[in-house]
Amino acid sequence: MAEKEETDPKTQPKSDSENVGVNAQKVLDGLNEFLDPSFLGNFMRERLHLSDDVDESGKQVLDEVSVEGVARYIKDNKCKNIITMAGAGISTSAGIPDFRSEGSGLYDNLQKYNLPCPEAIFTIDYFHENPKPFFVLAKELFPGTLTPTPCHYFIRMLHDKGLLLRHYTQNIDTLERISGLPDDKVVEAHGTFHTSHCLTCKKQYTLEWMKEKIFSDVVPQCEETDCEGVVKPDIVFFGEALPKRFADCVGPDFENCDLLIIMGTSLKVQPFASLSSRVSKDCPRLYINLQAADPAPAGFLAFFMPTSSFDFDSEKKYRDVFKQATCDDGCQQLADLIGWGKELKTLIKTETEKINKENAKSEKPEKVKAV
Ligand code: OAD
Q1: DSSP alpha helices (H): ranges in the chain?
Q2: Count of beta carbons in the 10 Å neighbourhood of residue 353
Q3: 86, 100, 110, 266: which is deepest, by most CB within 10 A?
Q4: Entry pTM
Q5: What is the mean pLDDT of each run of 10 residues along the chain (371 residues)?
Q6: Ligand 1 midpoint to CA 97 (Å)
Q7: Ligand 1 pocket: which residues have CB below 6 Å?
């Protein structure tokens, strides 16, 4: 199974165990499981320029390469298997910081933890050495009330309309599930906070148990007799395998995808970022984000991972659309253009009221702002 790899060499952790040989072997082992044989074959043919198909472009299925064109493509029932790919940017309006935004991103605000590099806080080798900073941060970030954003409800609406093939998320905040997406529609590529396991004996613990430990300011330790292993939430750290479900779903899903919508991610972390190149060459790709991203991998991975370069601007562009906006605004605009705008607003209102009611029933009610 693929391991989560940061592809920006400037941000690679620099511990002794991260030497090139070990990393190269890890990456190759991971790739063996992640890439199915036909994909690997095609990919190598392309990279070694052995492909018979000289013209690498696909055909244009949008009547116009724009958000309006994508909206008409959906409205005219020309797509039925939409995949959404998301990152931290879809949850910032719920009050959860992203990782790499300058100033507000988590990685710009970890100085007090004295880390060798910001990513160390989510790196498994560092966690084995010193788990404390992760749990201090987990306490700081533990959300009081989990409130899905308008963007989450847009994804839910795609599902309600029978158009969502799958939602792939790098987020561990579970907001997709809270918004009402069924479990089988979500692939949590970087794991979840919902369950935890002892790193030594693998005993499973619940979110409530973990929350109690985190708020008691202790590093959670296994309660099995003779086991004092550290218990870690099941989120995927750098250097750990991605969930099996990710590998199981990716192949068939991306082969069948007829519209890819990517939202709120810098596309800096592999193998997630390169998923965007696994759709067919005809498949339109809409990227809604505050900033444009160049997702092409750098360094060692540049050869082995498929590039995900988009063509948003050239004269040859035929399927890639970049909408520079917040995910919430981008989704609302798309919904308006399709003719779902009012329905989306109603869904948000109804669901938010439901969450407020549930909170009111609980011991410490916290009001969720209507969006
Ligand atoms: P990043 O912080 O790398 O990227 C978030 C992107 O969302 C940035 O390009 C922002 O400009 C954009 N953004 C922020 N707020 C937005 C908004 N309201 N609307 C639209 N765009 C917005 O986060 P990810 O790409 O999710 O792994 O990061 C991927 C992985 O790197 C994470 O899963 C995490 C991290 O290391 C872990 O190890 C936990």
Answers
A1: 20-34, 37-47, 67-75, 124-129, 132-141, 150-160, 175-178, 207-215, 244-256, 301-304, 327-338, 341-361
A2: 12
A3: 86
A4: 0.84
A5: 48 37 39 44 49 62 98 98 98 92 91 92 95 91 82 98 98 91 96 92 94 94 95 95 95 98 95 94 97 62 59 95 98 98 98 87 54 42
A6: 8
A7: 87-89, 92-93, 98-101, 105, 122, 170, 190, 238, 264-266, 268-269, 289-291, 293, 326-327
